[in-house]
Amino acid sequence: MNDTSTGDRLLRLYLTLVVVLLYIPMFVVGLASISRSRFFVFPIRKTSMKWYHDTFASLQIQEAVWTSLIIAFCVALLSVILAVLGALAYARYNWKGRKLYQQLLLVPIFFPQSVLGLALQIWFSSIGVQMSWGATVFAQLVWIAPIVTLVIAIQAYGYNGSVEEAARDLGASRWQVFRDITLPLLGPGIFSGFLFAILLSWGNFPLSYFTSGADVTIPEWLYGKMIGGYTPMVPAVGFLSVLAGAMALIVGLTIRVRGHSP
Amino acid sequence: MTEISESALPPASANPLGRLKLSKVSTGLWYALPMGLLLISGFLAPLVMVLLYSFMPRGTFSPFGTPTLENYVDIVVQNFYISFGWSLFLALISTLILLVVSYPLAVAIKRAAPKRALILTVLIIAPLFVAENIRLHGWVLFLDKAGVLDGGVKALTGFEIGSLVNSVPVIIFGLVYIYLPFMLFPMILGLSNIPTDVKEAASDMGASRWQMFRDIELPLAAPGILIGGLLCFVIALGAFSESKFLGQGVIVTIAQDIESAFTFGQNWPRGSALSVLVILLAGVAVWMAMRRLDLEKMLGRSQ
Hints:
- Chain A is mostly helical.
- Chain A has 11 helices and no strands.
- Chain A has a single domain (about 50-260), classed as MetI-like fold.
- Helices cover about 75% and strands about 0% of the residues of chain A.
- The longest helix of chain A is centred in the N-terminal third of the chain and has 33 residues, at about 60-90.
- Chain B has 14 helices and no strands.
């Protein structure tokens, strides 16, 4: 490339600015969480850790953290199971309903989530399913499992199926092929998919809001406090939630980069 | 197009053993079954239920009454089309802005060294994992009166900006901010499909920068751009947090109307009729775009 000139430099500057802009809200939330005053005023007059103490002392928040975590793990585990099978059907086998299946899989992703959440709410109450964290797991699966399937499908496209056929020709059973060849080859995709699912579930609001009933996740707790009854614990909880997500992402990516090179 | 994608498949159809081919057909179906059941029971069935409810008399809580069109008439008579219009406008304008804003970003990331490009991509996707309302709350604290911007400028210069929230442009800004990763990520994938030698060849043959952009880059990156645009448009159509937090009542979007019909209004048929309208619009957009896409090729090649 012969144009490492002003154009390229401007482009790089623009990119840097946008990346900084993306993180401004997280930064501001962090700032607000250490401000002593009840309503955030900038520049901060007095800093304090009071809101973090309150947060850690709150049973309500502890419960919300557990609810969020349980939902995230259930969703990630179930998504990966569904998605490994779903991705093989998507990418590796030629079967009759394949095209239709591939299209159907995309529709929940390309769909307004608030409308999906409400539709599921109506559906659950019509068939007599109690709104709870379990219902939320199901609701989030409808959105997250297809995404995880695509992530794993990319991996499934990337390797050569002849290894599996060779193993079968040599007398390996279907299960042995799946366990000893297919799963390890899909490994990196499965890991990314699992991480993706955990993080998407952790941050999801619309699907949880309409389906969780009396159970409250962290994004729901924040929403409730923002709408009525504001407390500076909102930025404190918000910032902790950002930190938790960031740590999971960094740990996950480190394992992924060190462990496998696809 | 189809030949290429077919050849990327495992050579099932080319297998000389008819027996093996047959078993593969059913294996694919078996593997797809759990996901298929999830989508039927968790996606199609709820939508059918919404459709049924939309034809029920106002305020009923059973989908099996006498069908009526009154909810659809109400959309027009009771001015619900206004919030629908707002949602449509917001979705269109934020998607357009996102297209313009994101393209140079995707190009810049593509030109960066591989390791840097990976880090940048992760940095751009990562905000997706933070709940929308936390990020919007951050912007409110930044833009509101005595917030970081107003307070900071005042402390430095003595000049008061005042509150910037509660206006339509700020809502649009919020939408653009929230959906940027959705636009950028598919765009990066799309651009990475352009082989560098094609561009070099074109440049060697004397193509201008504009010609290269129009005749080579854009058509090859089109699927990624289309997916990004579609994703943003459809999700923005159902947006409700942005207008709630950054607009605080300046305008009402269709998703807010739907929510209040279901919750405060306790009027499921009305909420359902409004939902059907959104679903139809989203469905038409998705269907039109899907017909032009070969997703298999995109996923297969991006590896």
